[in-house]
Amino acid sequence: MKIIETIAQMRQEITIARKAGQTVGFVPTMGYLHEGHLSLIEAAKEKHDVVVVSIFVNPLQFGPNEDLERYPRDFERDERLAKHIGTDILFYPTVQEMYPETMPMTIHVTKGVEVLCGESRPGHFDGVATVVMKLFQIVQPDEAFFGQKDAQQIAVIMNMVSAFNLPLQIVACPTVREEDGLAKSSRNVYLSDQERQEAPLLYETLQFGAELIKSGEKKRDRVLDQMKARLDNGTGRLDYLTILSYPSLNETQTLHGAIIIAVAYFYQNARLIDNYILEA
């Protein structure tokens, strides 16, 4: 496994791969790798000759009161995990390398950001789209792999790829979960023991809502009311619970077609998100 810290060297490696006729799969991450990330790397390995994993905690997507400095980092651990699973190139740029000066421009996302995480995190997806666009230009992959847990992020990136005619495909991979259903997340380390025991309630509530819909309930508000009643038993604070069309992320009172049931929930030191996508 090669560890690359500069954009110039990363581009050189991709040029070599292309001249050899190799395909490139890309897994962008913010590090502190867990089984969810590793499943994306495995999916990329199954389809491509060269797998690039990036680790970059992107300051542009953190708001002024968010956890940029507290975001978990452990590069030595990440290096071991990435190497063990068979990553070919680990791209590990510094903030200075990615943003050598104040950005003269960024991507402003105008669709799909007024709901879900975007509603309470203004500017977040502008930061996500900007860094992902930079990474796509640097790595130039054939396909990029993302976890379905970040469903809104996937929708935004898919829209960006389409809008700017980028020559790659986005692959959405299933959310990887703990045995009790809790979605794998770097932020799970911030949960207290009591919160960790309670946290599977989020996915259980999503499953409950999905079963209501599958059994014939098509009224959005009726499903949400019953789901919220279950979450009232939790010790944290609900950020949002909603049902939207997917990937357009529009609100409709009568459920039909592809939809996403999504939740965000605050515990004392962690904000957890999860979702369930189905056909209504």
From TrEMBL:
It comes from the Bacteria. Beta-alanine binds at residue 61. ATP binds at residues 30-37, 147-150, 176, 184-187. It catalyses: (R)-pantoate + beta-alanine + ATP = (R)-pantothenate + AMP + diphosphate + H(+). It is found in: Cytoplasm. The active site is at 37 (proton donor). Pathway: Cofactor biosynthesis; (R)-pantothenate biosynthesis; (R)-pantothenate from (R)-pantoate and beta-alanine: step 1/1. Keywords: ATP-binding, Cytoplasm, Ligase, Nucleotide-binding, Pantothenate biosynthesis. Coiled coil: none annotated. (R)-pantoate binds at residues 61, 153. The reaction proceeds by a bi uni uni bi ping pong mechanism. Catalyzes the condensation of pantoate with beta-alanine in an ATP-dependent reaction via a pantoyl-adenylate intermediate. Belongs to the pantothenate synthetase family. This is Pantothenate synthetase. The gene is panC.
